[in-house]
Amino acid sequence: MSTRRGPGRPPGAAAPRREQLIEVTIELVGDQGYAAATLGRIAEAAGLSKASVLHHVPSVAELLAAAYEQVLASMVAEVGGAVEEAPAADRPVVYVTAMIGYFREHPRHTRVASEALVHLRLPGESRERWEPLAQLLEQARTARGLPPARELRTAALAIGGGIDAIVREQQLDPSYDSARAAELLAGVLENVVLSH
């Protein structure tokens, strides 16, 4: 009889129970807000005792942080994939529409991200937001044969702010047409930053 174990999870992979707890947290926070994600409610939704939940994670705050990381990873994979598939000249426009589209299609993720930023007081590094978009803008201008722009940082900050405002408005008013808003913002980007 062999005592060798099968391959199991890859190193660094989250345990299945922890993954379940993260998903439950995304559902609770996404539907009802951070206040709804109590230890008792998470345990009940996962079909576990509170002690079992605490065995896998030390606190609800850590679960929210893990949920936030999962949301970011999912968003980066989806939006990044769409951007990578686009020609360099079109990547900033694809970025705008893909970002807004992602959060429209994943409203729970929108709320998890918002709640995590507020309740966990996560340090938002401005450069992490604007620099990749500024680089996409520079690459698009080059691909279009346009001269280098002097102030792409400000353009990236303005576009990022526009994305945030549209996503927030969609969160507050589900009837808001964020797809149309994304098209309008992309049009401004085309006409102001990528045409001269």
Automatic annotation (TrEMBL):
Ordered alphabetically, the record's keywords are: DNA-binding, Transcription, Transcription regulation
Give the SUPFAM superfamilies listed for this entry: Homeodomain-like
Superkingdom of this entry's organism? Bacteria
Q: What name goes with this protein?
A: AcrR family transcriptional regulator
InterPro entries named in the record: Homeodomain-like_sf, HTH-type_TetR-like_transc_reg, HTH_TetR
Q: Carries keyword Transcription regulation?
A: yes
Limits of the HTH tetR-type domain: 15-75
Q: Which organism is it from?
A: Brachybacterium sacelli
Annotated DNA-binding ranges come to: 38-57
